[in-house]
Structure formats: structure tokens, C-alpha cells
Amino acid sequence: MKIGLYFGTYNPIHVGHLIIANHMAEFADLDQIWMVVTPHNPLKKKATLLDDQQRLQMVFLATEDYPKIKPSDIEFKLPQPSYTVITLAHLQEKYPNHEFSLIMGEDNLKTLHKWRNYEVILENHNIYVYPRISDEPENIELKSHPKIHVIDAPIVEISSTFIRNSIKEGKNIQPLLPSKVWEYIDHNNFYKK
User: Fold this and answer.
1) Number of folded domains in the chain?
2) How far is CA 186 from the centre of its chain?
3) What GO annotations for molecular function exist for this entry (predicted)?
């Protein structure tokens, strides 16, 4: 089974994340998308970062109607800070019959050369890249790598930061969130302070 791993803090998960995950599930040659909730770094406690389980619950609520998209808490069980290369090795060991690929925005591809053991990732895993609007210069060398697949996905310019700030300001941003996620945030008064 070919699994696309889509990492994020998902603080909160929004419709942009779902548009990209669903596009990858339907139009890339992947069988499932696992939305990997990244735990927070204990050394960088952010007041705006919800607890790991609360963010996982939001991903669960957002994806339960999408059979090809699954929430994953795999990094909760691994040593911190999380390094993608270690997560991939752990998953490959745990699920030897699965083929794992990464899903990332074009902005992340531009800094991939700074990731720990990025050469090992590129050697062993495909990377599916979705477009982002960015001022950063392109990494042409990496973009032409045989393991890099640029997918013609919709450009979605919604950010979790914008959503958190808007909730804090009392704005109605319901259309930017899956309805069950909006209800969960509203019920628990998240991001209001």
C-alpha cells in the first residue's frame, strides 16, 4: 500500500489541509494519506499550541468522512524533537509492506537540503510537492530529482495562524474549518485568548 505522509501541527486543521490531502488521495498515485500530527517541542511551549490530543481529535473529526485520509499520532510515541528521517525509519519497520512518501508544500522543498539526513529521505522515499506562493528562490536541482513529484494541486492560501488570530479577534471564520472542527473549537473556547 502506498501511503502519503502529510505532517503538520494542525493547530487547527482547516479546509486548506483537507483540500490538499484529498487532492493527493484522488490524483496522485497514493492509496491513503496519513495526516501526521506533529507534537509540540517541549522546549518551545507556545501558548497558542493546543495539547497534542486536542489537535489529534480535530484531525480525527475533520477526516472521518474521508476513507482515504487517516489521522496519525505516530510521532507522539517517538523521541523529541521529531526528525522526519527517524519517523520514516520507524514507520518502515512497523509497516514493512507499506511504501511511505512525503507530502510537502513547495516552500518546504526549498529548505529540504537543511533537514537532518535529507539525502537518506530522498534515496528511500518519494516526495509529492504541492504548489505554494512564495518569494523564496526555487531549488531547481531538487525539483528535478527523480524522487520529487510536483503535483498540480490547487494553491490554497489559508493558514492556521490566520484562523487563530481571527478567532481571537471575534471574527467568524466558520467557512475555513470543517464544521465538526469549528464546533469542537467553539465548544471548548479554543484560541479566544
Assistant:
1) 1
2) 23
3) ATP binding; nicotinate-nucleotide adenylyltransferase activity
